[in-house]
Design brief:
Layout: H1 6-14, H2 20-38, E1 41-43, H3 46-61, E2 72-76, H4 103-110, E3 114-119, H5 153-160, E4 166-171, H6 177-183, E5 186-187, E6 209-214, H7 217-227, E7 257-261, H8 271-286, E8 290-294, H9 302-317, H10 336-347, H11 350-363, H12 368-389, E9 395-396
Parallel strand pairs: 2-3, 2-4, 7-8, 7-9
Antiparallel strand pairs: 1-3, 4-6, 5-6
C-alpha cells in the first residue's frame, strides 16, 4: 500500500479493498520502524490518527466519501492543529499544544483526511536543508548522508520514504519546491493567496504560502483541491470561485510554449543538474511542446532581495515570542527585560537569531530606505519581468536548485 499514489489509494478505499484504519495502521507501522533513521516526524499520536480513520470509514460507508477521505496525510509542524504539539521545529515552541486548527487543517479534516503526524522542519522555516531543527536534521531517504532540502524537508522525506502518501508544507523562498526536487518527489507552491495562511505560523508574511507534496502531479491537484479556498480570517486570501485543479490532467501538450531563461542555465548550475533538465526539455519537445529562449536579467538580484525582505518580516513576526504569553520561558531572570533577553537567547537557534538580527538592522532608522524600500522596488521589477516573459510563453522551465 505504501507504494501507491493518493489516487490509487482513494480508489481502493472506495472499492472497500481495504479500510482507512488498515491503511493508517500500515503507515504508522512503517513510521515506527523507519523514523529513527530519517527523522521525518516530530510528533505522532496513533490513537488520534486511528480515531480519524474510523470516522473516515464511517463517512465512506454513508456514501459521503471524497477523494481524500481516509487518506493519511503528514503535516509540516508549522500548521496549528487542535490538540497537537505544534513546535515549528523550535525549542521556543517545544511545549506549545495548539488550541485551534489552521484553515488548511480544517479543510483536510472536513474532507475526511487522516492526520498522520507533524513533520520535522528547519526552525521557523528558516533554512534550505532541514538541518536547523531543534529536533535534529532530517535525512534524505535516498542517501542518509545527504540532506532532503528545506524547510519542508520532513514532509518531503516522509513522502519519499513512503511513510506518507502525501504531505503539506510551506514555501517562502523555495521551501516546498527545493525539498521536493532534492527528495525526488513532486511539490507545488500555489499562487500567493490561494491557500489561507490562517493558523500557519508566520515567517515572512508576504512570501509564505502553504502547498502540497506528493508523488505525482495528479496527487498534488487532489490535495490542492482541498487546501485551496477563500478564508475571511486571512486578509490576503483570494476570494474567487473554486477550481478543479485536476481538470487539465491527461490533455495533450502539443503547442504548449515553454520558456527557457538563459539565466537558469548559466555558470553556477552543476553539469548533472543541467543535463537532467535538458533531458526533461527533450521529453516535452517529443510531446509536441515548443521551446522559447527568454531572459530574466534581474533574477540575479532575487536572492539578495529575499535576504532583505524575508528577515525583515521575520524580525517583526518573531517579536511575539518573548517568554511572557506562551512558548519557552527562561527559568531564571532578574526583571522583564532580562526575561525577554534570556528567553529569546535560549529559545531560538542560531539561524533564527541571525535572520532576526539582519531583519532588525534593515528596518532600523537610517537603513530602512536604503535596504528595505529598495528591495521592495527590485521585487516589483522582477515581477514585471516575469509578466513580460509570460506574454511569450505558457510556462517557464529550469532547475529547481542549481546544485
Amino acid at each position: 500500500m505504501h507504494n501507491a499514489t493518493i489516487r490509487s489509494l482513494a480508489t481502493g478505499l472506495a472499492a472497500r479493498t481495504f479500510s482507512s484504519v488498515e491503511l493508517t495502521r500500515h503507515f504508522i507501522s512503517r513510521i515506527n520502524g523507519l523514523n529513527k533513521k530519517y527523522n521525518c516526524f516530530i510528533t505522532l499520536d496513533p490513537e488520534a490518527s486511528l480515531k480519524q480513520a474510523e470516522a473516515a470509514d464511517r463517512m465512506r460507508s454513508a456514501g459521503k466519501g471524497q477523494p481524500l477521505t481516509g487518506i493519511p496525510i503528514a503535516q509540516k509542524d508549522i500548521f496549528c492543529a487542535r490538540g497537537w504539539l505544534t513546535t515549528c521545529g523550535s525549542k521556543m515552541l517545544s511545549s506549545f499544544t495548539s488550541p485551534y486548527d489552521a484553515h488548511v487543517v480544517e479543510q483536510l479534516n472536513a474532507a475526511g483526511a487522516v492526520t498522520l503526524g507533524k513533520t520535522n522542519m528547519d526552525e521557523f522555516a528558516m533554512g534550505s536543508s532541514s538541518e536547523t531543527s531543534h529536533y535534529g536534521p532530517v535525512r534524505n531517504p535516498w542517501d542518509v548522508d545527504t540532506v532532503p532540502g528545506g524547510s519542508s524537508g520532513g514532509s518531503a522525506a516522509a513522502v519519499a520514504a513512503r511513510l506518507a502518501p502525501g504531505a503539506i508544507g510551506t514555501d517562502t523562498g523555495g521551501s516546498i519546491r527545493q525539498p521536493a526536487a532534492l527528495s525526488g518527489i513532486c511539490g507545488l507552491k500555489p499562487t500567493y493567496g490561494v491557500v489561507s495562511r490562517y493558523g500557519m505560523i508566520a515567517f515572512a508574511s508576504s512570501l509564505d504560502q502553504g502547498g502540497p507534496l506528493a508523488r505525482s502531479a495528479e496527487d498534488l491537484a487532489l490535495l490542492l483541491n482541498v487546501m485551496a479556498g477563500f478564508d475571511p480570517r486571512d486578509s490576503t486570501s483570494l476570494d474567487r470561485e473554486r477550481e478543479d485543479y485536476t481538470r487539465e490532467l491527461g490533455k495533450p501538450l502539443k503547442g504548449l510554449k515553454i520558456g527557457l531563461p538563459e539565466e537558469f542555465f548559466a555558470a553556477g548550475a552543476a553539469p548533472g543538474v543541467v543535463k537532467a533538465v535538458e533531458a526533461a526539455v527533450g521529453e516535452f519537445r517529443k510531446l509536441g511542446c515548443e521551446t522559447v529562449e527568454v531572459s530574466l536579467p534581474n533574477m540575479k538580484l532575487s536572492v539578495p532581495v529575499y535576504y532583505v525582505l524575508a528577515p525583515a518580516e521575520a524580525s517583526s513576526n518573531l517579536a511575539r515570542y518573548d517568554g511572557v504569553r506562551y512558548g519557552y520561558r527562561a527559568p531564571d531572570y532578574a526583571d522583564v527585560l532580562d526575561l525577554y533577553k534570556k528567553s529569546r537567547a535560549q529559545g531560538f537557534g542560531q539561524e533564527v537569531k541571525r535572520r532576526i538580527l539582519i531583519g532588525t538592522y534593515v528596518l532600523s532608522h537610517g537603513y530602512y530606505d536604503a535596504y528595505y524600500i529598495q528591495a521592495q522596488r527590485v521585487r516589483r521589477l522582477i515581477a514585471r519581468e516575469f509578466a513580460e516573459v509570460f506574454k511569450r510563453c505558457d510556462v517557464i522551465m529550469g532547475p529547481t536548485s542549481p546544485t
